[in-house]
């Protein structure tokens, strides 16, 4: 007998967030949320590679960058985020910019910039700051999948 997945508390919470955000937030719920917190540039790049593959396979993607993962989105990013890696000579930030160009929503965690003592001007074009209620609603979406690197 298949197990039934019930999430009454999560469903109630998501509905509450959706009501707060309006119906547009529900319509824009991504099917995949990629969360990048890894400091390792190879893990960061693999997150970008797999997310690119998901986009190419038709997934609607939202990317959340937190902690060291947020460093990829800085205009003054660490060298590890901008250095090309084998086998395709791509960098985490270069692939991130490619994903932004393909319509992926990319945001840093709400506490990332304050933790640096910076504001949104420190971010590359196309990267925003996540709003916790909207991000939680997206993550709680009935059809949402979360990849974490």
Strand percentage lies at: 5-15%
Helix coverage percent: 40-55%
Count of β-strands: 5
Q: What's the CATH topology name?
A: Hypothetical Protein Ychn, Chain: A
Give me a quick take on this structure:
By secondary structure, the chain is of the alpha/beta class.
What does this structure look like?
The structure is a single chain. The chain is α/β, with parallel strands linked by helices. It has one domain: 3-Layer(aba) Sandwich (Hypothetical Protein Ychn, Chain: A). It is 42% helix and 14% strand. Helix 3 links the parallel strand 1 and strand 2. The longest helix is centred in the first third of the chain and has 16 residues. The N terminus is likely disordered.
List the helices and strands and how they pair.
Layout: H1 8-21, H2 23-27, E1 32-36, H3 41-56, E2 61-65, H4 79-82, H5 92-101, E3 105-108, H6 112-116, E4 127-129, H7 132-139, E5 145-148
Features:
single chain; 149 residues; disordered N terminus; 5 strands; 7 helices; five-stranded parallel β-sheet; alpha/beta; globular; Hypothetical Protein Ychn, Chain: A
